[in-house]
TrEMBL record:
GO terms for cellular component: extracellular space. InterPro entries: Beta-gal/glucu_dom_sf (IPR036156), Ig-like_fold (IPR013783), Ig-like_GH2 (IPR006102). Transmembrane segments: none annotated. GO terms for biological process: carbohydrate metabolic process; glucuronoside catabolic process. GO terms for molecular function: beta-glucuronidase activity; carbohydrate binding. This is Glycoside hydrolase family 2 immunoglobulin-like beta-sandwich domain-containing protein. It holds the Pfam family Glyco_hydro_2. Belongs to the glycosyl hydrolase 2 family.
Amino acid sequence: MPTELPLSAGKVSASVDKGRHVGAGKVIDNKVVDTRGQSGRQQTARHEETTRTKYPLDYTKYSIVPDYFNYAGIHRPVVLYTVPQTFIDDIIVHTDINDTTGVVHYTVSYNVGEYGVVDPACHVELLDHQGVMVSNGTGLVGTLYIPEANFWWPRLTHSRPGYLYTLKISLIDNDELLDVYRLCIGLRTLQWNSTTLLLNKRPIYLAGFGKHEDAN
């Protein structure tokens, strides 16, 4: 759960517990409350943290030389960012293909602060790589259809690989833009059976894989 932290003169007070986390490899959010009288804004500190007590020294022995050491503190940047009182909190996207038509199923959730708008309107647009709108809709849950869509393909499998659309989500109240979020998405499907992996309903051969830095 997010931990509320006060701000003092633009800095987080060193005497305040800034939130705790036990474990590794998990991004956590701490909500920072602005006590300087600037209503309508809040800040969130996001960081990854590990604990040496839970994962002792030499817990994992690498066969490679990494550029960092596990269980030795914060390995990623700490980021402070502000959000409006009514802001987009999460977007879930599922894509499908119907012949040459692309299908985008979306679900949007938002969060409301003390002075936020409780029931904003949600406008959804899908833009191509040139910024031209190819489909649009309204509501927090819906489906977009893109005729003659450009599907996402890996390199060496298509003349135009890695094609991405931009899903633009806007929260609006009485013609006032409350928040907007843009998410790049590719139109693709992934299926498999006992013998074949299918990308966009076509068999695909995998020549390798990407190994995560923490894979053992």
